[in-house]
Amino acid sequence: MNHTALSWLNGKIAGLFGIGVVARTDDTTAGQQLQVRVLQNETLDVEHIQPYGLTSVPLPPSADGTGAEVVVYFIGGSRSGGVALQVGDRRYRLTGLEDGEVALYDDLGQMVHLTRTGIVIKAPLAEIGTGAVLTAANGVVTGTAFDPYTGQTQFALGNASSVVRSE
């Protein structure tokens, strides 16, 4: 293969992927649409393919231009056919997880963390199933829930290690 052919092939391969910043999100369509800034003067509209059962809406960029980062695949190397493969936002990413741990989190500090020893939920309000609402303040949990299997209303009042009683 000659040098010209290798240069052409290298350019095509390099043009398949891009990394950019999410500028705007439209989450009203079946496939989430992102406007992304890939190069200094290049803004593109791409579809964000998300995994089944999990969805999110990236936050807009900060005033300084930092924001959610996106990896875009350009089908056939065409800049008009981009698909967002991955979106992440290092401004809010949880750090310090142990090997094998998983977490779901947002920019407000809410999270569900599957640790090596159990599940940690941090949120001002947790709604569980139909009609179940638990609130926590200063380590005290209060709430009620209807158990459709037993027909009983469950009440909780106390710290996280308290036993829930039913009536």
Explained architecture:
- 7% of the residues lie in helices and 45% in strands.
- The longest helix is centred in the first third of the chain and has 12 residues, at 3-14.
- Strands 1-2-3-5-4 form a five-stranded mixed barrel. The protein has a five-stranded antiparallel beta sheet with strand order 9-10-11-12-13, with no helix packed on it. A three-stranded antiparallel beta sheet has the order 6-7-8, with no helix packed on it.
- The protein folds into two domains: 3-88, Beta Barrel (OB fold (Dihydrolipoamide Acetyltransferase, E2P)); 102-166, no CATH class.
- The chain is elongated and about 75 Å long.
- It is built from one helix and 13 strands; from the N terminus they run H-E-E-E-E-E-E-E-E-E-E-E-E-E.
- It has one helix at 3-14; strands at 17-26, 32-39, 42-48, 69-74, 82-88, 102-105, 111-114, 119-122, 125-127, 133-137, 140-147, 152-158, 165-166.
- With 167 residues, the protein is mostly beta strands.
- A hairpin with a 5-residue loop joins strand 9 and strand 10 (133-137).
